[in-house]
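Quick one:
INPUT:
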């Protein structure tokens, strides 16, 4: 009976949150792990990710209260909800903020049993496009200008070789003469 009640409560609890869930699973798992660690006043390395129950619902394991305890963590777009499987009274909802530019989630949460109160910050891994963008903008401007100039000169040279008489190719306009 207790398990059925637990399943019903769990389903109702996370039903509304999953509809507004985030798309950054690595960040969600990091936030869930850090919140569980803060909740039981353990180091983040002591909390182990067990499995993904379904979208934005994760299972973590930690040694707590002289036994192995499992915690179910649901991450929605604005909050993190933690519920202990063995400790049903241990249920918390922690709001967090997501920064679109840095793709990081920040949760400010403290537990009375735990002296640590620094914000929990977890960032999503950058996509290939973001990495290329960082690589491009991380270079000095003179290098970017030199690269553009070389490309333009190569294109001009190819056009001159294709049309040695100076007439523009079909469908292009003639460059103004100086």
């Amino acid at each position: 009976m207790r398990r059925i009640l637990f399943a019903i409560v769990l389903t109702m609890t996370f039903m509304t949150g999953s509809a507004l869930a985030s798309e950054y699973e690595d960040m969600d798992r990091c936030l869930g792990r850090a919140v569980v660690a803060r909740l039981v006043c353990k180091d983040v390395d002591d909390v182990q990710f067990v499995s993904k129950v379904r979208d934005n619902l994760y299972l973590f394991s930690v040694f707590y209260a002289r036994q192995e305890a499992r915690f179910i963590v649901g991450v929605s777009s604005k909050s993190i909800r933690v519920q202990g499987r063995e400790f049903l009274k241990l249920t918390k909802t922690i709001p967090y903020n997501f920064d679109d530019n840095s793709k990081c989630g920040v949760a400010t949460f403290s537990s009375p049993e735990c002296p640590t109160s620094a914000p929990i910050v977890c960032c999503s891994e950058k996509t290939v496009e973001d990495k290329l963008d960082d690589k491009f903008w991380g270079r000095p401007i003179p290098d970017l200008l030199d690269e553009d100039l070389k490309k333009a000169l190569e294109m001009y040279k190819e056009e001159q070789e294709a049309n040695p008489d100076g007439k523009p190719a079909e469908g292009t306009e003639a460059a103004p003469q100086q």
